[in-house]
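sanity check this fold:
=====
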Amino acid sequence: MQAASSTRRSSSWSPERPARCNGPVLLGVDVGGTFTDAVLVDGGRIHTAKAPSTPDDQSRGVLAAIAAVLDAAAARPDAITRFAHGMTVGTNALLERRGAKTALIATAGFTDLLEIARQDRPSLYRLCEDRPAPLAPPELRVAVRERVGPDGVVDPLTDTEIERVGDEVGRLEPEAVAICLLFSFADPTHERRLAAALRRRFPDLHFSVSSEVLPRFREYERCATTTLDAYLSPLLGGYLRRLGERCAGLGVPEPLVMQSSGGVTDATRAAAGGAWSVLSGPAGGAVGAGLLAQASGGGDALGLDMGGTSCDVCVVEGGRAGRTETRELDRRPIQLPMVDLHTVGAGGGSIAWRDRVGALRVGPRSAGAEPGPAWYGKGGTEPTVTDANLLLGYLDPQAGLAGGITLDRNTAEAAVAELAERLGIGMLEAAAGIHEVATQEMIRALRVITVERGVDPRRFDLLPFGGAGPLHATAIATELGIDRVICPRSGGVLSALGLVCAERRRDTTRTVMLAGDELTAGGIAAAVESTLEGLEREEGAKLETIYELRYRGQSFELPVDGPLDPDPATLIEAFAAEHERRYGYREDSAEVELVNVRLAAREPLADFELPAGSREEPRRSRRTAVFAGAPGAIEVIAGEPPVGLVADGPCVFELPETTFLVPRGWRAEVDGLGTIVATREGRTA
């Protein structure tokens, strides 16, 4: 959440603003909890805009942001050659339980798999805590009399049984159906026959089939992911159809949709697989962080995306954000390729409050887009992080705001003062406390993805973005021992910029279970070939191969990169080295097992380069800000800073969609791309 932004904010990266766009025109639109961000790239220029998000129908906010950025760029809709979109439709539907009425079809005796799960407690010490309600309730589950075992068919699936299951589905009248039969990852024959028959009988009903969604072992995770896919797909499909129709009416191309993996795919494919884009919004930010880390740093950075509602953090190495195949969302497992993110409820709109023992807390509840922070003047009365930053002098009270919102400092003061009275402290002291507590929440999140995983954060740069991230970045870096902070000039809309440059990507995975004499060059080649059969790819796409291995007897695997035709000994050595790096030891005498093969077909966007920075002198002024509890003068640098500018803290860079706070003891320098690189005193950029 950022105060200094407007619906028409052009960030033209050349001295002269063009009257029209030239060359390929790329558009990215990212929906956040508070604002919808748009970036339009036209050759050597980038234009940006924000519009308030519209939670009731995100497509309205998307169209408003598109109109604003087209106006800022003096461009026509039909000039756009590619439109990439990141959204929170799936995430919101899951958190708010607004998905489709979903039925589950499973092998007889396994219909309660979602409730049995792993037979462990969701919380070790809270004995009464229960799991979230299954997305397919008991009354919507259908048992199928069939059975496939690890060695083949045990109980055949008959035509009569398929007919009976169809009758049961008709009686239940679901909006979506998940099909997950036992051992279908090894032999999908029964599942495919059943799915084909039901699709013929119910052509307007959505079916998610586990051998299509996730052909890998671990029955509970496979069933949970397939059910989640069925639960979200009808809603996502309706949204994308509605957005596509509105884009067509405007003359804008059909959107490519960001997937959780960090790559885009066409809208039709995205609509058919709701689980694949459940983290669509945050993934764009991770891609953008990788781009800037490579361009303005050494390629290794900790991404910090602080928006209006939450903060997402990720690790970028070699210019690419880390990926994972397993995580929980709303305490539900999802086992698909995803950018490896950790999220906390600390955003610019996060509400500050006093807990029952008198401590100051921030989040996870947020003021969101409606009514927003108190100083937005839209009816919000509770103090937020943005209100605190305003009172501390870090934000300009005269700045414009997306959507033409009139700002009201008095409401911010009243909200923070009321909380300060409950805490028994002064208003500015409460504001400073809110800023510090929010900072500590983000530090905790970064420690989860670094220190708790054996990663030293001190060897990374910190790359803050989102409307509010750069305001807290140097404080976070100091606490973690990080010497350099990289703040993109487009930091407030970096997620949308990540969408613009995102590659097309398709992923698949397959359980192969090779060990001993089977783990040979021929055995691996056959496993890769069978996995390739499930991967649709365009000619010329780059193939990325990951092998998941473990020592015999272990419960979980480690991913290892490798070529399509790896030497088994080399692959085993790479696994042992990774095991030693991760856990501190290796077992050279133990048998190694190849469990899964993961493949991705990647089509990078050709010839995309970040334009050079501006050379226009910025506007300079001074205002009062509070540091260490005491007010003092602070230099304000407004607009896009020119290449080569050097500024010592304390100072504030007021960028088009975000504000970067540089305290005393830090020096900032603007590189050739217009990125602000801040280093701690005594260090060099």
Observations:
- The first strand starts at residue 25 and ends at 31.
- Residues 2-21 have pLDDT under 50 and may be disordered.
